[in-house]
Specification:
This protein is mostly helical and 240 residues long. Helix content is 78%, strand content 0%. The chain has one domain. 46% of the residues are buried.
Length: 240
């Protein structure tokens, strides 16, 4: 596997754009960048995207550390563990296309429920299943944000960003381990991710400086829009 200079630049631009969106909304790096990376070099997904997301999550957690409160996310962490085990098995045994169809449809149904005010409350049960779904989606496709974001959508915007970032540190680290064991993450993926890290941090810093001008309603609309795009793209990709 190798990338030309032009391809590497496009990969860095795509990841940096995703980092800017995630730093404003709370998630979205994979949703923005993964489709472009799939066109440039499909093997970069999910490994390199997950590693960059991990690095960005560390930066975002530090930026919003004063608003970070993981209380209430405990059941999401619990759900993450069996979800990652299931995802690892799926990477070995199940067609990725079939998985994408199922997970994409699930995200779209959750978005419809949110639009029609059928709120998904952050109960222990819902947090467990959100963590489980995020583990399966994140480990297999690198797009793990929508399930958690939909459950936490009523949270204060700044706390939403902080808590999602804290959750992503835990979830991405586990996903990388499973991807490595399944052969989806290698030293080459890590090398490509490191090239993108500095531009990603710069874009995150710019977004952090602008976040005070972003209204809460804009974040919610952006959140639902990104979830819709992620669900539809994942669902349709399953038929390709």
């Amino acid at each position: 596997m190798s990338l030309s200079g032009e391809e590497l630049l496009l990969v860095i631009v795509a990841l940096s754009a995703g980092a800017f969106v995630q730093s404003l909304i709370g998630f979205g790096l994979a949703i923005v960048s993964a489709p472009f990376l799939m066109m440039i070099e499909p093997s970069l997904v999910p490994g390199s995207v997950t590693m960059v997301t991990l690095g960005l999550a560390v930066v975002n957690t530090w930026q919003y550390r004063r608003q970070l409160s993981l209380k209430g996310l405990g059941w999401a962490f619990v759900g993450r563990i069996p979800g990652t085990v299931v995802a690892g098995a799926l990477l070995f045994y199940l067609s990725l296309n079939a998985l994408e169809i199922i997970m994409g449809l699930a995200v779209l149904l959750a978005v419809v429920a949110s639009v029609f005010k059928l709120a998904v409350e952050p109960t222990n049960k819902n947090m467990f299943w959100a963590g489980f779904a995020a583990a399966v989606m994140g480990t297999t496709t690198s797009i793990g944000g929508p399930p958690m974001a939909l459950v936490l959508q009523k949270m204060d915007v700044v706390r939403l960003r902080a808590n999602l970032a804290g959750y992503f540190i835990f979830s991405c680290a586990i996903s990388l381990g499973v991807q490595w064991m399944a052969g989806y993450f290698t030293l080459w993926h890590a090398k490509i991710s490191m090239y993108a890290l500095l531009p990603v941090i710069i874009c995150s810093w710019v977004a952090f400086r602008l976040q005070q001008y972003v209204k809460a309603e804009w974040v919610r609309v952006g959140l639902l829009g990104l979830c819709t795009f992620a669900g539809a793209a994942t669902f349709l990709r399953g038929f390709s």
